[in-house]
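Exercise 3.2. Students should predict the tertiary structure of the chain below and write it as structure tokens, then compare their answer with the key that follows.

Predict this chain's 3D structure.
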Amino acid sequence: MSSVIENRPVAATADEAAKPKGTDSEIGASDQAETTDGFHLVIDALKLNDLHTIFGLVGIPITDLARLAQAEGMRFIGFRHEQHAGNAAAIAGYMTQKPGICMTVSAPGFLNGLTALANATTNCFPMILISGSSEREIVDLQQGDYEEMDQLNAARPYAKAAYRVLHAEDIGVGIARAIRAAVSGRPGGVYLDLPAKLLAQTMDAAKGRKSLIKVVDPVPRQLPAPDAVDRALELLKGARRPLILLGKGAAYAQADAEIRALVEKTGIPYLPMSMAKGLLPDTHPQSASACRSFVLAESDVVVLIGARLNWLLAHGKGKTWGAPKQFVQIDISPTEIDSNVAIAAPLIGDIGSCVDALLERIDAGFAKPAAEWTGAIVERKDKNLAKMAAMLALDPSPMNFHSALRAIRDVLKTRPDINVVNEGANTLDFARSIIDMYQPRKRFDSGTWGIMGIGMGYAIGAAVVSGLPVVAIEGDSAFGFSGMELETICRYQLPVCTIVFNNNGVYRGTDKNLSGGTDVAPTVFVKNARYDKMIEAFGGVGYNATTPAELTKALTEAIASGKPTVINAVIDEAAGTESGRLTNLNPQSAAKKH
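Answer key:
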């Protein structure tokens, strides 16, 4: 429900609920001690399950719930838009393996959060969207209630699961089911619908405590079948050009030591997807990141660990993959197998257990890949890295993406613990290949959907969860989706440095209005905008950087200070290509081609 006042009974305010016992009449204090309400049961159920942070945006009845949660020792991080609160909750879930909690008001607030919920489900991030809603009897008869909407059914297509709680005694069950659904099997987003009357319901306090559930073993190990493990190893033993492909599911699994042991024990080259970077350091000798196209095309057996053959991997077929090949796929969901191409050796189970099982069965007879294969990879890597080094060594004026990212790369290399958020078109593409990662779960980007607008939400979530600095590398277009959350960053004094790559437009700032009219082209922004001034309005620190040296100085100072910072990195407005590297997804008109 929104902040508009309604003629509807609500529970005591947070101030009233927090009032010390015994300050009123003894009868009143006794009554208060013997009962509880929906507000407190929601809070107690979350705390019982070690969920102590809520990301959200207040409004009736969420305002009192937020106040009470704070009074009970929980942390409520208030946002300026529900979508960004949901993104913060999602990335918190990814980092911790516990569902991030996002709380919104009804109807429009719920719909704003629904975008983040759908993104979390697509990316397999565990989160729970909790929204207030209108009463069922009014919604079902379509009687025109304030912000009336059938939120439960609206959420179902975009969530892993959706539940509604109607009675206070069922709050414990509802939250327990939401937690288990969010984290078990393939993680995802869960919707929990709480009609306004529910929160005001009261019940006996002792019965209320008994109704709460502490979820036991929400993510049980799922062991692979021994014959499936043997089948996978037999396929690998016959491979001449094997490749291990790591997806963000491998990073989420937190089986870091096991995955590294498998890579190094087998000697198989590996290729990390963008959010799997750092699972092993990008500088590891077996990394094939610098020759991605070569290994995808030339490999003959590919082991997929927490990666799906979706559009990011050209669906496992076509020119990207070259000659036909065989796949070993480790996945917790059997329905993912054969989703695009035939999988010769499916290995169903949790990643840690599957990798452990492979390690246990690899014997002395398992031969590492031939030097012909590994040597060809090293040769191609060295060639590509030399080419990249030459581009990075250039110092054009104004800066381009390469020279600006070189400056950022060199600073971040000294702080491998820093969280990096990255989005944009060209900004995302270039940063992914230029900035090395050294630790797992430190890089957060547009993910499976490839969407823009995750920047500030992810940055806030990562800062809150880790307590460590965050550097958000943003295209100016991508930044625009969530830029108002700079106020949130300043309000909570989070150590977030946002670098806006400013080239005056979407992709670039040089397009012209083909009609010759006075309106600027659809892709062009205000020229020479000063994004650094935005954060100064909220008490943060702004820098305007026009050279790599200025960018290096600004970023170094920002990280050292731990203060909310924005660096306006001025890039050549002609730098950048349409859609970044996704030109195949962007059919251009004949007029554009001419």
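Discussion points: The domain at 226-370 is CATH 3.40.50.1220 (Rossmann fold). Confidence is low (pLDDT under 50) at residues 1-31.
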